[in-house]
Write a structure and sequence with these properties.
The chain is of the alpha/beta class. The protein has helices at 77-86, 104-117, 155-162, 179-188, 202-211, 233-239, 256-266, 316-325, 330-335, 339-344, and strands at residues 4-9, 12-14, 20-22, 25-30, 33-39, 48-50, 54-57, 59-64, 66-67, 70-71, 92-100, 126-127, 130-133, 167-172, 192-195, 215-216, 244-247, 271-272, 285-289, 292-296, 361-364, 370-375, 378-382. The strands form six sheets. Strands 8, 11, 12, 13, 14, 15, 16, 17 and 18 form a nine-stranded parallel β-sheet that branches. Strands 5-4-1-6 form a four-stranded mixed β-sheet, with no helix packed on it.
């Protein structure tokens, strides 16, 4: 017989295509897959009983530069294992490691190293591929990216970066020479294209969407905005139903009132991301992002020496809590960190509690912090009481 586990909870966020809050209820798991979701108590004693809090789908983060002291662009196998093994502490059961701008040959080498490391990793969060944030970005909107390494997306550069097949998401500025052709090439290769670090007008973004772009990277940050006479990336992101805007809700990158604006305009499309740097989960001090130094202060996000924001120290469960604290309902906030990002990258088996989905689950406490996490039905984290 197949191993089966039944988890009962006071409250659950369930649904394949449209999420809803139920409770009490229980989930039956067989061979790492959800086979049954039922409202009400099970007839037989469950294997696991969760009292209080909410059982949610496992969280999916599409932008993780690093964590726990390790920058994933140049981490060794031990560093990768630390990040993969400990991300479930934050509720993240699947993620895209993110490599920021570097010379194309260096990014290619990083992708090859990653392809060699991934098969040797043991249990923890799923690695869904790689997000390349650069190097095809705008000099005017470069943020923490090194200006000297920014370049145009030539066919040769794209071919080199796509060689390993690991790239699942790429952030670029479509207004660069060759930008729209790059969007088409990447889309045809199955890569999700995100507009970011871009000085584009709203019309230019619309052209990129027509060419295949489907996401916007860290909405409002390092991009043109919502000027009433010269609308830019952010304006198009909020009004174009084909786009899923990523949003860093640490309340530093984007002010609370503007976060509310984003959810009011596009709440069913927002993707919560952390943009976590190596400093995430670590004490204040000096770390690296993309091979260059950053400093994590006593409070607030990490910074470059010139004061530029350089990623975050945010947890994704914390982002959910911050979002709910802004007045967004819990189901919408959880969707933004589960089903919506999973669907965006074509992983409809993740980010939901529904029959046939992978049994990636997180038990969020009443404070919306992670109390327990399962990946493929296997318990990978339990908070000590």
């Amino acid at each position: 017989m197949s191993p089966t586990t039944v988890i009962a909870a006071d409250r659950l966020i369930v649904g394949e295509k449209e999420s809803r809050l139920i409770g009490p209820g229980h989930v039956r798991i067989t061979d790492g897959v959800i086979t049954e979701v039922v409202e009400g108590s099970p007839s037989d004693p469950p294997d696991v009983t969760l009292t209080g809090g909410t059982l949610s789908p496992g969280l999916v983060d599409l932008q993780v530069n690093g964590y726990f002291g390790h920058d994933l662009a140049d981490a060794d196998e031990a560093g990768w294992q630390t990040v993969v093994g400990r991300l479930p502490e934050t509720g993240v059961t699947a993620f895209l490691p993110t490599f920021i701008t570097a010379p194309v040959d260096r990014l290619t080498a990083a992708l090859r190293r990653t392809a060699q490391v991934l098969p040797g990793l043991s249990q923890g969060s799923r690695v869904l591929g790689v997000h390349l944030e650069g190097p095809f970005l705008s000099e005017r909107r470069r943020g923490a990216h090194n200006r000297e390494w920014l370049t145009d997306p030539t066919p040769r550069a794209l071919a080199a970066l796509l060689e390993t097949g690991l790239v699942k998401l790429m952030t670029l500025a479509p207004e660069r020479p060759g930008g729209l052709d790059a969007v088409r090439t990447l889309t045809e290769a199955g890569v999700v294209v995100s507009v970011g670090h871009s000085d584009a007008t709203a019309d230019q973004v619309a052209q990129a969407v027509t060419a295949g772009a489907r996401k916007v990277t860290h909405l409002f940050n390092a991009q043109t905005g919502v000027d009433h006479r010269a609308p830019g990336v952010a304006a198009q992101a909020l009004t174009d139903p084909r786009l899923s805007p990523g949003l860093i809700v640490d309340l530093h990158h984007v002010s609370p009132v503007v976060c509310r604006l984003a959810f009011a305009a596009a709440g069913d499309r927002i993707v919560l991301v952390t943009d976590a740097a190596a400093s995430a989960g670590m004490p204040p001090g000096r770390y690296e992002l993309g091979g260059e130094p950053i400093v994590l202060p006593e409070s607030g996000p990490p910074l470059r020496a010139d004061g530029t924001l350089a990623g975050s120290a945010l947890r994704l469960d914390e982002a959910i809590g911050n979002t709910v604290g802004l007045g967004v309902d819990l189901t919408t906030a959880v969707d933004a960190a589960t089903r919506i990002p999973a669907d965006l990258i074509g992983r409809v088996d993740l980010g939901r509690i529904a029959p046939g989905a992978a049994a990636d689950l997180v038990w969020l406490g009443d404070d919306l912090r992670t109390r327990a996490t399962w990946v493929a039905g296997r318990a990978v984290f339990r908070k000590r009481t």
